[in-house]
Request: fold
Amino acid sequence: MASDVTEERVLRAVRERRALVNEAIDADFPMAEPRRLYEASRYLLEAGGKRLRPTVTLLVAEALGGVSAGATRTPAGVDYRTFPRVDDGTVDVMAAAVAIEVIQSFTLIHDDIMDDDDLRRGVPSVHKEYDVSTAILAGDTLYSKAFEILSRAGADAPEGLEAVRVLATTCTHICEGQSLDIEFEHRSSVGVEEYLEMVEHKTAVLYGAAAAIPAVLLGADEDVVDALYGFGIEAGTAFQIHDDVLDLTVPSEDLGKRRGSDLVERKATLITVHARQQGVDVDGLVDAERVEGVSEAEIDDAVSELERAGSIEFAREKARELAANSKARLETLPDTEARSLLVDIADYLVTRGY
Amino acid sequence: MASDVTEERVLRAVRERRALVNEAIDADFPMAEPRRLYEASRYLLEAGGKRLRPTVTLLVAEALGGVSAGATRTPAGVDYRTFPRVDDGTVDVMAAAVAIEVIQSFTLIHDDIMDDDDLRRGVPSVHKEYDVSTAILAGDTLYSKAFEILSRAGADAPEGLEAVRVLATTCTHICEGQSLDIEFEHRSSVGVEEYLEMVEHKTAVLYGAAAAIPAVLLGADEDVVDALYGFGIEAGTAFQIHDDVLDLTVPSEDLGKRRGSDLVERKATLITVHARQQGVDVDGLVDAERVEGVSEAEIDDAVSELERAGSIEFAREKARELAANSKARLETLPDTEARSLLVDIADYLVTRGY
Reply:
């Protein structure tokens, strides 16, 4: 369990890099014509977000490059745009961080259309604020922009193309995961292993890419790249499982969306998968057809039943186990302040309040 | 005006390469799990299509590589997978051809959702055959697969990354063009230049990429790459203008979709842009709200009025002019059978019956 001190360290590290990432997003993905398209494309990027994934990208670079912010310097003093490679030359690891966040934003926009979710990051989702066509196109624009941006990151590095390949494969996996997620809504029985495979594809691979791509660009050895990818997969899966717990346990105003939405939308989560195996009538837990129609009391009752079945504790335990495994992978990195922050992030992902 | 002999030569060249392209699509984008997602992603690719753009890609490679099919050998005798570069090494130009066709298929699927078009290539559009969520995801999957496939094409070529950058920029332009196209449906006045800019972004850039990417991969000089991109832009714009003419003049069963659909959907075309400037009440030409509701007689009357205004001839003339310009760009290529076929294709794009 992460202490308050750990959480504070993580939030400070994220906050310090967020300002730089936001500046870089503005520089690499500026407003352009047609105005409505670019406004819609940038809308969620501007609505906030912790920038956890880009922070992972920058920290991996710091750990590998020996250009560590933290003990002796602030992130603002690190030139992420011309970051020294392991052998020779430089790459733009900030562009890689931006590309990861841009892909994340694309997936949120298209997922919200498919799930018909009204709220995201405390504001109307893109297809509600604009319309479905604009939201589809905004997602598509973010998609290609991410590849444009990443292809410039390693322009002179032979590994630039490999980084693109990792991102492309990651996006394919995300689509596969989202497809499974939708399929699971219509299936009464989903196994724990199947569920974990879905989360790995839908969510965790982008953490994998966030950690592996800077290593690829910097020319790290293949076993280091693989270990970092594994770190991202396990930490990202832990993140999603914890997210599913938070969807049930955190007040709507802190979540930025309605509490219990996963239950109403019949989403498979590790909690409901476990509960079904314990004989809980998961489909009967809430009655509402739409998230707006569900009462807080109804969600409270559902949560109590899931707690009695041990399903919430099962999910918490699985998340903790995955986070512990992910931290072990980081031993491949040099012992730096940046590595220590990555360890803290793995803890934070499964202990954060929202 | 292209002769029947020209058309026959083009169709033979396309047909000979189509079989190889289709084989390559199966190899590079095979069925996978989740099954429904991959079926939906491959659905339009399997429904047909002439494979004009990939043929352009292969012909450019043939013209540059001196490995010309035609007079002395058939395309089946050319190894497009290990195609000799201008200086040293080989690239997989077939993978580039597949990537272009996969992107084309992605744009059709998402465009059909936005336009709510029911038919495509004579079969139900993907969101009608499956559902909107599956169609969004199928398009997204094709998108990332195209980048995966292209990133393997030039794996050992330093220009591999530049090829990816061209494709990414192309996709951004396509989104911008589609956004303008939608915007134009809600505007009463669109200028000829604006319209041509929209077509360049939405449609022509993919012809530009189809012609330029093989040149990039093969290591051709920058002025050759630029000339080929220009060829694609002009030929592609001519193609779209001719397509707009065909939408009004070709029977529905040959089009594979309902004749006159552009008029019903209030799409701006060069024909309607011109007609408005001549004082024609374009919005009053057809009464129907949906393509299913429009009669052949109503379309016939609309076409007669557009002919009287000179708008159809204006569009035909513009298409011919662009095709002529595009052919002139090809003089940068060595004088080969492949170049001669590219010239024929430019003619064919503005003379084809459907």
